[in-house]
Amino acid sequence: MAKLNVGCGRFPMADAVNLDRVAGAGVDVVHDLDDIPWPFDNASFNTVHGVQVFEHVDDPVGFMCEAWRILADDGELHLSVPHWQSENSHTDPTHRRHCTLHTWDYWIAGTPLNLSNGPVYGGDTHRFTAVRVEHVGDDIHVHLRKIAALET
Prior knowledge:
CATH class: Alpha Beta
CATH architecture: 3-Layer(aba) Sandwich
CATH superfamily: Vaccinia Virus protein VP39
Strand content: 25-35%
Number of helices: 3
Distance between the termini: 27 Å
Radius of gyration: 15 Å
Order of helices and strands: EEEEHEHHEE
Number of domains: 1
Largest sheet: 7 strands, mixed
């Protein structure tokens, strides 16, 4: 299976399908992440990477649900975003949200935010386990693993 690098901009990954909303060198798929669904089949990727992109999307719930949808079972989502206390989080006028270590708890199975708000945020069926969520320098590094869909 493949790796997807969303919002790759000027930093495509040689071993990934590189997606960005603007065509450029190394961009394989031109698509706006706010245009849902994303142009990939269910369970198309083992890994989805997004570096400094989540804070820019209009629909974070849609982003998380689409990442879950295109990941294979046990696939991994790797994100890096500015920590809300970093200057960069507030300097860039295109940032639509400021993230904390608990931003992803809505989708991490068993957390209080997932248990109380999961259905509203897609986290009742689109769930992850946290491999690692950590504050590193000015950023938050997020590493989540997809949990297969619940039986209905």
